[in-house]
Each structure stands twice: as structure tokens, then as C-alpha cells.
Amino acid sequence: xxxxxxxxxxxxxxxxxxxxxxxxxxxxxxxxxxxxxxxxxxxxxxxxxxxxxxxxxxxxxxxxxxxxxxxxxxxxxxxxxxxxxxxxxxxxxxxxxxxxxxxxxxxxxxxxxxxxxxxxxxxxxxxxxxxxxxxxxxxxxxxxxxxxxxxxxxxxxxxxxxxxxxxxxxxxxxxxxxxxxxxxxxxxxxxxxxxxxxxxxxxxxxxxxxxxxxxxxxxxxxxxxxxxxxxxxxxxxxxxxxxxxxxxxxxxxxxxxxxxxxxxxxxxxxxxxxxxxxxxxxxxxxxxxxxxxxxxxxxxxxxxxxxxxxxxxxxxxxxxxxxxxxxxxxxxxxxxxxxxxxxxxxxxxxxxxxxxxxxxxxxxxxxxxxxxxxxxxxxxxxxxxxxxxxxxxxxxxxxxxxxxxxxxxxxxxxxxxxxxxxxxxxxxxxxxxxxxxxxxxxxxxxxxxxxxxxxxxxxxxxxxxxxxx
Length: 469
Ligand SMILES: *Cc1c(COP(=O)(O)O)cnc(C)c1O
Description:
Blueprint: H1 13-18, H2 20-29, H3 31-50, H4 59-78, E1 85-87, E2 91-93, H5 104-115, H6 134-143, E3 150-155, H7 158-170, E4 174-178, H8 191-197, E5 201-205, H9 213-219, E6 224-230, H10 246-256, E7 260-265, H11 283-289, E8 293-297, E9 308-313, H12 314-322, H13 325-329, H14 333-345, H15 349-355, H16 357-363, H17 366-379, E10 386-397, E11 405-414, H18 420-429, E12 433-435, E13 437-439, E14 442-446, H19 455-467
Parallel strand pairs: 1-12, 2-10, 4-5, 4-6, 6-7, 7-8
Antiparallel strand pairs: 3-9, 8-9, 10-11, 11-14, 13-14
């Protein structure tokens, strides 16, 4: 008797749909999703049978295998892809892992505004229409020590803030900037490209390492609309360097009637040198030096939601507010809720340091991190893993304070049976997803960027990764 093609034994769609386990899956995922999953399971079985070299399979076994494949695929495809992660990399502002973590107060404000209606653009006192930016502009004025002749606004991110400022204030005209500040802030944000696409002409002055006030002065023409300073956030030039202080640039601008745009990048609101960190230009210092428009990120050192903040002379900020691009770049209510709540915490500096995760992590004492590492290692005691505590260095990340190394304690993991890269992948794909870094064939978990509340989940995730079949 000739052998039947084994492919004919692949369970038919109707039969799979009748399996009790699959009926339950239809309840959970809906018929469409289940049909999709059955078709791809059949496809997978075809592949498996073709490569099984004529070995005659058993129909019942194939059905069990089909149901298993359907269930696995539905599990995988119904998991949200934008899920929670535990950042054990020690990089405080990790762009891939979502940069700044919001404070509890900010997260609560977001949830409240998301779940119901809100006072987004109304004035409760008069019952009239209000302005969405009012929720943050007076707070920003207060925190940055700005007078009534200053205004503030918020856009989608700092790249948008710079773009809007250049477009609204210098379109069709010239922007003077030092050659040493023609920086790239990651991927597609290069200052020369931004200026060009904002329809302004870039005028470079000075050299890569040195620029003097006279260079700026010599670059000014009747076409000059802005003098621009960009903080080189993510690198440092050391050695034979020179750059005029911002106040000198401002003085030159005042004398020639040209506004100064200062792109701070991170924009610390608090002076972090008080907590042992290297000086990062603060918004206060820039205001004091007299910059006309200042831009900075919401989710770098500020520790809030992704946003670009602008503070500056009222007439200039008004021009930006009235620009048609403002409607394109305006922040949504969730961002505004998170930003308002974050800025409110800054009214009390101690509270900001305690409650804004970015600031808490940057200023965490080595002792606190050490204790956290000890607690994690004691939670891992029964696992078949070599667990050691070591000193290490955390980074600020997010293009802030380049080269700054913060002393920390890492928990180093190594397994005899599981290669370190496999262990790392299991942790990344687990629930919650866990990210560390590999060094000398060990997985290092830096406890600076892990909260106490995450320790239990982290230990459970490590156990699951070690136990995984
Ligand atoms: C980070 C940075 C930007 C871009 O800010 P985003 O908020 O990421 O858009 C622009 N300029 C400087 C100097 C920066 O450091």
C-alpha cells in the first residue's frame, strides 16, 4: 500500500475549532485572532512534517501540537509590546527604556486626567475658554525666578522647541553659532540640519575648540536674526578650549539688537553640584545671564514627561505661541498633567530630590545602593547562580553630564549551566522585562536604577529565567 502524504494528516481548521481548549481561546481572544493562529499553526506543522523525512505522524499527536501552537501564538500576540521594564543598567536616563521615570504625583495626575474630563482649556472662575499652557507657564515663571516680562511654553520635546524657536524667530534670516556647538544629539537631531529645515541660514564662527566674542561680532550682518548657544550635552571638549561666557554673548546681542537663543539640553532646575554632581548649566544661570529664549528637555534632568520647555522674553515667546507650528507641536493633556505635577514638586527642593525618581537615583548614597544590592542577593540565595556584590560605576545617560561616573554597587550573576547571553535574553523577554549589562561573561545588575519596590519582582524574574525550560 502506498504511503499517504503526511501533510494530509494536518488537523483541519473546523476540527481544531471544535477542541475544548480552542473554544476557550475563542472566548478570550475572539474568533478572528484564533483563526489567524490556527492558520499559522497549520503552516508551522507543514514545515515540521516536511523536514521530518517521511516519518509517519500520529493524528492525535498532531492535534495536540496544533492546539499548543495556537495557544502559544495567542499568548505572544496578546501581550502588549510596550510593557514595563526594570532598568538594572545603572544608566539613570536610559533613552531606550523610556528616559525619565515619572514621580508618583505625576503618574497620579496623568491617570486622573486620562480617566475623566479635565480643566484642560477652561477657566473655572469665569466659565470661559482658557489656555492649555496656563497650567505650566506661571509655575515655570515662579521656579525659574522669571519676572512679568518673561513667558513660558511647552511643546512635544526639546528638538521641537529648538525648531520652533529658530523657525519663528529667524526664518529666512541668519543664525550665528560656534563651530564647536554644531552638535548631533542622537540620530536625526543635528543642529545644522535643524537650522536648515527651520528655514534659517547657518553662519558658523570660531573653530571646533575655540571661539571668541569677536568671532560672533564679526559674523553679524543686517541679516542676523539670532545668536545661538547649544550646550554640548553628550560630549566634552577638554584642553585648549575657549568660549565666551553667556553674559558676554548677551551683551553683544543687546548692543546689536539681536536675541540670544540658549539651547540648554538637559536644563537642570536645581543646582546638582550641591549633591556632588558636576556642574550642568541651570535654567537659573541662563536667565541670570540674560538669555532671551531658553530651551530644555522635560524628560532629562528635570525628570518629567517627554516635552520641550521654553522660557524667554515675552514678546519672543508670544511669537512662538502664535506660530502655526505651535498647533502641530502642542503637548497633549497627559503630558501637561505630568509636567504640572512634576513642576509642583520643585516648589520644595527636598521633596523634588526625594520624589522625582531621576533626582533620587542621581543623588542616592552609595550606602543605600549597597543595602539594596545586599537585599537582592539574599533574595537569590537559593538559586543555582554565582551571585557576587561588586563596586561599579553608574552613568547619567540621556545626553546629560557626559563622563560623569557615579559610584555604585552591582550584583553580578553567573550560571554554570546557562550561558550569560541566554540568561540576559530570558530576563529581557520575561515579565517584567529586566535589563542589565554583560561584562566579562557575567550579567551585572546595577541597583542604583532599581527601586526598593521593584526588588521582589526582580528576584522573581531572575528565578523564572533560571528555572525556564
Ligand atoms: C537632548 C537635547 C536636545 C533634544 O531634546 P529632546 O527633548 O530629546 O528632543 C536638544 N538639544 C540639546 C542640547 C540636547 O541635549
